[in-house]
Amino acid sequence: MNFSDLPLSEVLQRNLAANNLKNPTPVQAGAIPPALAGSNVVATAQTGTGKTLAFLLPIMQSLSQNPVKGVQAVIMTPTRELAIQIQEAFTKLSKDTGLRATVVVGGLNESKQLFEIQRGSQVLVCTPGRLQDFINRRLVKLGTTKFVVLDEADRMLDMGFLPTIEEILKQIPIQRQTLFFSATIERSIIPLIAKHVPNPVRVEIGSTTKPGVDIDLHLYEVEGHRKLGLLRHLLAEKQGSFLVFARTKHATDRLAKKLAKTGVKTAAIHGDRTQSQRRQALEGFKDGYYRVLVATDVAARGIHVDHIEHVVNFDLPQAPEDFIHRAGRTGRAGNKGTASTFATRGERGAVRQIERVIKTQMPMQQTPMNLPEDPIETPGSFDEQDYQPARTPYAIKKAVKGAHQFAPKQKHSFVKSKKLKFQGAKPAGRKPAYA
């Protein structure tokens, strides 16, 4: 089956070809036809299998036939990063369709989001909390909504969004099409499906309880104070990019600083980073500027990067089910990947619990001898110049590149002026040019 075989408009077919999208993945081939026919869909598939396109194409096909202003579709997703990436995918495919999508999430400029909605965006890609806030303040009305998408639904419920989702769905007409996508279907999700997704077409692709076949699982038993040495060994021995998971925000920052101190280009991403910092870290990792991205589980489903060669569980996940979503960041789009897990002797029980959940025994790897111990941290061990996520070299490099690309040619050299500081009152007369 090819995308050209699907009953999609000429514009969408052209946009798919322009983005080199020819053959649908199994979940796309299973979910798109019934969604195009107007059926509700419940689809489960492993992470990295193309679920985003499986719900975007049917919505865009329907809305492009009669593009009108006003909210026609609501796509709910658990994280800001995932919402932004969905909107980026929408933008690539919506050229010449007259359709617009707006990201509605916390951490970004609220006024800009509201302005885009008032301009007539047909699709809202949102996190439940921010959308509910807009609804409560009567800034958004969903009475014209025809499509609802719950993406990564299991993760949203894990994060406690169920009451918020229920309140949002009360604002949307019952006569709607609902597309429900999840990596797993757990007991907590079944009542939500029964209540809000009547008579769905069920699409289930592969096993959702174990990592993909393209992912090699490695287990290392290592003392806690030698984990950094093992990670540095893998970085020296292996090629490619590394996504490293730590358990807490503090541990994420500490590990990123230690790696940066050794000369490895490293960025960190977790819930306490500003949206600007998270975006810079993710873009730098995507573009290859950073070789290592250290993350908490907030990023496990919010990072969609096809070139990640290695996932490292520096700390074990808090829930065994999260292991699947961590490992699913590699081995995507038909590429091979490796997911390595570091565990101490005292964590053998937790490892066995993970293996029972994924129904796979992770092969034990030989841990190198004489690994160095982690450096002892003292006040001032790390200079802030070693690791500055708020103003990264990548951000500066990209800003300079953009300035050179778009700035008009100057006849004379540009000299940056500095604001003058006055000790007393400003002099009367002509208003300074810098004011």
Describe this structure in words.
The structure is a single chain. The chain is α/β, with parallel strands linked by helices and 435 residues long. The protein has 2 domains: 3-58 and 65-204, P-loop containing nucleotide triphosphate hydrolases (Rossmann fold), CATH 3.40.50.300; 215-375, P-loop containing nucleotide triphosphate hydrolases (Rossmann fold, 3-Layer(aba) Sandwich), CATH 3.40.50.300. It has 15 helices and 13 strands. The chain has helices spanning 10-18, 26-36, 51-65, 80-93, 110-118, 128-136, 153-158, 162-170, 190-196, 227-237, 249-261, 275-286, 321-327, 348-358, 393-406, and strands at residues 41-44, 73-76, 101-104, 123-126, 147-150, 177-182, 201-204, 215-221, 241-245, 266-269, 292-295, 308-313, 337-343. A 7-stranded parallel sheet has the order 3-4-2-5-6-1-7. Strands 8-13-12-9-11-10 form a 6-stranded parallel sheet, with helices on both faces. Helix 5 (110-118) links the parallel strand 3 and strand 4 (123-126). The protein is globular, with a radius of gyration of 24 Å. The termini are far apart.
What's the CATH class of the largest domain, please?
Alpha Beta
Largest sheet descriptor: 7 strands, parallel
Strand content: 5-15%
Q: What's the pLDDT, averaged over the residues?
A: 83
What is the radius of gyration computed over CA atoms, rounded to a whole number of angstroms? Answer: 24 Å
Defining traits:
7-stranded parallel beta sheet; 36% helix; Rossmann fold; 435 residues; globular; 6-stranded parallel beta sheet; disordered C terminus
Secondary-structure topology with pairs:
Elements lengths: L9 H9 L7 H11 L4 E4 L6 H15 L7 E4 L3 H14 L7 E4 L5 H9 L4 E4 L1 H9 L10 E4 L2 H6 L3 H9 L6 E6 L7 H7 L4 E4 L10 E7 L5 H11 L3 E5 L3 H13 L4 E4 L5 H12 L5 E4 L12 E6 L7 H7 L9 E7 L4 H11 L34 H14 L29
Parallel strand pairs: 1-6, 1-7, 2-4, 2-5, 3-4, 5-6, 8-13, 9-11, 9-12, 10-11, 12-13
Helix pairs in contact: 2-3, 3-4, 6-8
